[in-house]
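# nightly structure sweep
# worker-07 picked up a monomer target from the shared queue
# config: single-sequence mode, recycle default, output format = structure tokens
# input follows
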Amino acid sequence: MGRIDPMYQFSLDAYNQLFNQSIDKSTHHSKLEDRILALNDYHTYAVYKFTCRALFEHHKLLFSFQTCAKIMEAAGKLDMEEYTFFLKGGVVMDRETQMDNPVDKWLDDASWDNITELDKLTNFHGIANSFEQYARDWHLWYTSAAPEDAMLPGEWGNSCNELQKMLIVRSLRKDRVAFCATSFIINNLGAKFVEPPVLDMTAVVEDSSCKTPLIFVLSAGVDPTSGLVQLADEVGMKNRFSALSLGQGQAPLATKLIKEGVKEGNWVYLANCHLSLSWMPHLDKLVEQLQSEEPHPDFRLWLSSNPTKGFPISILQAGLKMTTEPPKGLRANMKRLYGLVSERTFSRCKKPEKYKKLLFTLCFFHSVLIERRKFLQLGWNIPYDFNDSDFEVSENLLNMYLDEYEETPWDALKYLIAGVNYGGHVTETWIVVSCTLTSTTSSTRTCSTCPSTN
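# output follows
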């Protein structure tokens, strides 16, 4: 996995520790067969959660599919010849012997190459000829919005299993492969393996020890600092929490904070390690010393860094890694935003009924803005970096205006939140208007269900 991203480093020791936890926490049964089945199920999902915590969003489905394929391969349920074709596709070595494309008006050469090579597999003999026999049906299937759900032409609709249908989709409609892979994982492993859990910082702390570095792998739009400060407050470590942004001249202070934290049981957060790569070998030695020393049990070393090849591999293997990338999907994004709101913050407003509805609206509004990025230029002409700070400032404005005004100043809230706070990021007038309209629509739909809202 290190070839995919330099921060994807895992060790056998970490896996052994996770396996021991699975033995302790999985359901116990008197029958050996039931016990093994329960342990396998629990440990498979534990590995998935542990690994997904360290992966970027666009790699999580790939990991789930790889896990599913390996489990099916071990159980003898996977045709390896077909699976290899799914991974690599078809490459025509001798075009002189290749069958002519009978539907070249709508099927490109690359797709036809895949079909003619697919025809050479045992279970697909005759599929190339079927394009001449069922040309109209294949065209209807090819142009359908969701071909993975449509019936295949001719006898192929009844003769293909799920993987074989994926091969046809992969050959003709690569844009739908991710949807096929998702369904394949759900049908063979379960829906929970395509719904990565939202990062739970409390659970991460419980899984860690004083000798385990906790590493945030940074991405645009999310800053873990505020969440970490909130966590320290919740667990009673606020007065023993030290944060330092690394850079030129900060190395001696960082070393001092770590040594003090080891003795006194402090939490030490060293942000932006990628800005101090020359100091990373020294940090590697300090982390190595933790393994031979006996640090205070409350000590935790938190680190953050952009993906970089200069980050020590030994620290990545010894630590617990967490990506800070916003999750995919409105629901996952909203769950993460609710996680940023502490119980104290949630209950501080004097008008809780209005506040709870408007907080939902704000979470929905922020999530929509984040989700529009995946549509590239169809979502935003420029990939604006809306981040957690925008949400936190907006939440504070919401709470303040609800407390200070008897009648809720809707126009002022919409202008400050959508037009100023979020709209301040953008440089195009129409985008500001879009933000304001989205905010207006969301708040109107949410608050219209509240009879007591003024």
